[in-house]
Amino acid sequence: MTKRRKPRGLGKYNRMRITVKQLFGIVPNEEIAEDWVEKMMWGADHEKLHCGHCGAMDTVQSKSGRPMEYRCRTC
Questions:
Q1: Which of 20, 49, 51, 72 has the fewest CB within 10 Å, making it most exposed?
Q2: What angle do CA 10, 13, 16 make, to 5 degrees?
Q3: Which are the contacts of 67, defined by CB distance < 8 A and separation ≥ 6?
Q4: What is the pLDDT of residues 26-39, one digit of tens each?
Q5: Are 68 and 34 in contact (CB under 8 A)?
Q6: Under a CB-based contact definition with an 8 Å cutoff, are residues 67 and 35 in contact?
Q7: Of 43, 63, 67, whose CA–CA distance to 53 is shortest?
Q8: Are 56 and 42 in contact (CB under 8 A)?
Q9: Strand partners, 60
C-alpha cells in the first residue's frame, strides 16, 4: 500500500479567505500589488525583514533595482 501525501493548501491566501475579486480590490495596480506581496512575504517592517518561507532574519536587499529585491541567505 502506498502512502498518500497530504494535499497542499494555498498558503496564506487560503488562510485569509481572500477571493480573487477581493484581491483585485486590495491591489488595484501593479505598484500596489508589488508592495502588498512584499509585505506578505517579508513582513511589514522594513527594519525587521524576515523570510516568509523559513522565518530567518538573515535577508539581503539586492542593488539591481529589480522587483522583489529581497533574498534570504538561509534558504
A1: 20
A2: 130
A3: 34
A4: 788 888 887 887 78
A5: yes
A6: no
A7: 43
A8: no
A9: 71
Cell of 32: 500596489
Q: Grid coordinates 501593479 are at which residue?
A: 30
* Res. 51 pLDDT band, cuts 50 70 90: confident
Looking at the whole model, is its pTM more than 0.85?
A: no
- Judge whether 60 and 71 are in contact, CB under 8 Å: yes
User: Minimal CA–CA distance to 59: which of 44, 36, 38, 42?
Assistant: 42
CA distances from 53 to 19, 23, 39 (A): 23, 21, 13
Cβ-Cβ contacts under 8 Å for 32 (sequence gap 6 or more): 26
Between 31 and 11, the higher pLDDT residue: 31
Please compute Rg for the chain using Cα positions: 15
